[in-house]
Amino acid sequence: MTESDLRIVDDRVDKIATHITAKHTDKIFDAQGRHLLPGMIDDQVHFREPGLTYKGTIASDSLAAVAGGITSYMEMPNVNPATTTIDALEEKYAIAARHSAANYAFYLGATEDNLEQIKLLDPEKHCGVKVFMGASTGNLLVENPTALEAIFRESPVLIATHCESGSVINKNRESILSKKSKLTIEDHPKIRNTEACFASSSYAVKLARKYRSQLHVLHITSEKELTLFEPGPIQNKHITAEACVHHLWFNDQDYPRLGNLIKCNPSIKSRRDQSALIHALHTNRIDIIATDHAPHTWEEKQLDYDQAPAGLPLVQHALLILLEQVKNGHLSLTQVVEKTAHNPSIRYSIDSRGFIREGYYADLVLIDIHKSTTVNRRNILYRCGWSPFHGQAFSSKVINTWVNGQPYYIGDDIPATIKPALPLFFNR
Fold first, then answer.
1. Could you tell me what percent of the chain has a pLDDT over 70?
2. By CB atoms within 10 Å of each CB, which of 277, 321, 340, 377 scores lowest?
3. Do the Cβ atoms of 175 and 141 come closer than 8 Å?
4. E strand or H helix at 397, and its extent?
5. Are 108 and 87 in contact (CB under 8 A)?
6. Mind listing the pLDDT tens digit for each residue in 261-309?
7. Is 377 exposed, middle or buried (CB count within 10 Å of its CB: 0-12, 13-18, 19+)?
């Protein structure tokens, strides 16, 4: 960390120096000794548009992301209809071009019969292809070995996987129901357990090694899975792993208190698994931290366990969660920046983002580590209107966020107008 001045011209960082003499045309923003970080790049969000906009939209939840210090995101294909064609992908880009407060990219969803669409993906424009290996809804489930081999062999872009074995999940479910008549939230980590994750993630790693695929395994949750990934810096890895903020914050002891509000796939697991994930961030077996932001309505989350959907809203408070880990001595501020900005930029080869450098886009977040934030219904920006962190007092505060040099004074004020952000491009 260094103390310096920084000048933004248009959408880029123009100059960084110990002292910059202000021009008469400059607007001066006094950071008052606070920390200026590169904006978080979240490689896994579900903004629910099109088709599920009663849960969230690209406009509403990208604004919540910017309020939380996330300046770029990559959005998932399980909307309605699912994003499984290039045409559907382009429709989402068009929506974002009009309404997104943060910079954006979108994954194509793999199916067992859309390989020709996958082959049309542009490595410079499209962030990746999302493969649900073993557990999903609709037509996004890919279990057929021949289809999976073809995707890993032919994909021109990075393959991002959700790894849970459907057969193991079904077996676990049947075993529990043989002993009781009704499932509860406490059964969730037993149904979607370590074996369900490992069976699928180990298969993905095996395929990636066979075909030298660019593989990124999303939301690792278990200690056993960590053995699949190499420690060390992210440069030159072709197989990488990610942890999500809620799996670092919660463990299975939180189910009695929060119930379906923290029901997510893959499940939140034991305290030991939680500790192993944090340790893996230090050894660099885990390369990236993301959110897997996945909003549902409050009413949906009040349903019985079996009917309640999996997923929770996270983008507005993700950086605050990680700064709390810094305060508690579990991570350093440098590690947070590396895992949320530098490494996503490196892994996806994002053009001119993820670092505070001259010539790079001015995607920046100013934080005050001495000013607290208490989550309440008045300051939640998600369309779904709730957060599992309601009432939580975080020790830090997002003071301001810049997206492409555009300031959003979002700590206490919602902007009246939003200048749409830009698509991400990739130097592959």
1. 98
2. 377
3. no
4. strand 397-403
5. no
6. 999 999 999 999 999 999 999 999 999 999 999 999 999 999 999 999 9
7. exposed
Select from 112, 265, 280, 241 the least CA-distant residue to 189.
265
Residues 6+ apart with CB under 8 A from 227: none
What is the spatial distance between Cα 202 and Cα 260, in angstroms, rounded to a whole number? 28
> Pick from 287, 153, 164: which is nearest to 216 by CA?
287
* CB-based contact 398:320 (threshold 8 Å): yes
- Residues in a beta bridge with 401: 365, 408
Rounded Cα–Cα distance for residues 426 and 349 (Å)? 5
* Helix, strand, coil tally for the chain in percent (to 5): 30, 20, 50
Burial class of residue 21, CB neighbours in 10 A (0-12, 13-18, 19+): exposed
- pLDDT at position 135 is 60
Enumerate the β-bridge partners of residue 316: none
Distances (CA, A) of 319 to 38, 123, 287, 322, 415: 12, 29, 16, 5, 20
Q: Is the pTM of this model over 0.70?
A: yes
